[in-house]
Amino acid sequence: MSERSRAMVRSAASKVLSALVVMFLAATVTFLLVRISGDPLSMLLPPDATAEQADELAATLGLDQPLVVQYADYLSGLIRFDLGDSLFYNQPVSQVIADRLPATALLAVSALFIALVIAVPAGIAAAMRRGRASDKGIMTLILLGQSTPAFWVGIVLILIFAVRLQVLPASGHGTLSHLILPAVTLAVYSVAVIARLLRSSLLDVLSSDYMRTATAKGFGPTHAVVSHGLRNASLPVITVVGLETGTLLGGAILTEQVFTWPGLGRLTIEAISNRDLPLVQGTVLLFAAIFVVINLIVDVTYSAIDPRVRLEK
Amino acid sequence: MAGISIAASQDAQTPTHTAWRALRQNRWGMVAVVFLAVMVLTAALAPLIAPHDPQAQNLLERLAPPSWAGDSDHLLGTDHLGRDVFSRLVFGSRISLLVGVSAAMLAGVIGAVVGLLAGYYGGRLDWILMRLADVQLAFPSILLALAVVAFLGSGLWIVIVVLGLTGWVSYARVVRSEVVSLKTRDFVTEARAIGVGNLTIIRRHLLPNVVAPLATIATLNVASAIVAESALSFLGLGVPTHIPTWGSMLADGQLYLGTSWWIAIFPGLALMLTSLAINITGDAIRDATDPKVYRR
Questions:
Q1: Which of A11, A278, B73, B208 pairs with A232 at a CA distance of 20 to 30 A?
Q2: Where does residue B278 rank: exposed (0-12), middle (13-18), buried (19+ CB within 10 A)?
């Protein structure tokens, strides 16, 4: 193994380790959050329950054990991907989550796709026409997109396309036409963030020496930007897309609620209103895990692509 | 940057003065500031401005359209219980501003302390604090807020504290990176050489130099906290429903979109314009105070 690839493996290993530490802390936070937030028994039992019923339920849930024992059980369960049983569905939490995960994944991936298809050309156009009317127009739209909450976008889209024009359904799932409004709703904020960052990142790159060289060699501005500039400008954008996963997942919770989309977000809200503690614990932890894993992938890929990052290590 | 601003404060040209001049030249920035000033006044004088009691129900006038769009004497119409939408909007601005500003201040204090400590002391403390920031970032803040509010029960102060506790990371990261570069500057190393204590250095020499980035982030954070509060109230898990908020008005309105668009559209518009005005102001403050920003 060459010195360089050994350094790469070492830096990747330290990133994985750091991600594991974050995951462990996230699991602990989730555990504490669910435990300190009041007595789950009083929320689960009917008001006229007897003391025996309370003890029985506590024993079934393991709540009669000391906190340390509960914590150890919880962690050892996590390692085996055992998140306990949902109180409401009477099924393993992992099963309930697995049933709902595809809907959220479809929504998030579609939204990200729409966001990239709109944001990349918009960002390039704004950077190339910097300071002109089209740049200002795009920047205004970006600011508007960043300031508009997802659930409000969803309501306006429903009003226009479902209530007035009656061309798309306001809720439900299953067909492509059900996907369009929620995916567009979720994409709006990401479009703004990605386009804005790509623009400023391209502006940095455009003023660099190799871009001037490319132009001097006789490449047209569009060709120079696409073949030289975009590759370099995309690096910070990739990092931000990773960090935006959290916002995207948070937005998915609201979007799913507006469009009654049967994904993890609605599942979490249902679980919260049903006081289904194991399920809340499971979904919250899954959201955190998705974020950590995506950012780990982004981080490792980033250092594999960008030699400057690799050499720093 | 720091040295310059300290030297400049000897003259009449204080940094605040320079920033204010730059802000005045920003046309949209001024429009946004005026909009926000009007909103603050509206919130402060809500009982004088609102024509009706925001909670007064009138089932005879339920779902009345805005007065300029149909037969009604309610400026922005009434909701499904006959409550005046305009009056509820005016009172709702109080909650939005209160939650937004308080949560941003709480988050700012936590973030500034964490950033100053992590940046100045470095080493193991820095590593631990930044891993905590990673953990915080891993949870979408709306999700944490949902979970906490659902278990602890909803309440105005709970919403403020939760949004404050989940918003500190961006402050901490920016302050930390500023401090890391500031602490090798002459005025800090010299202060240390003549025996000035660490806490005094942090308070007298570092904190004043991170105020400008803190102000920018705080402004943007007010907008995101306002949106987060309305999201929680929209989901029915925010401020108790007997208090009018833009989020709960939106939730009511979504049920009547087919017949009475005005119930959802006006609170949403108010939310969007407020958030837009705050974001424009935040950008303007950054451009006015940060010499590193090239004029783009």
A1: A11
A2: buried
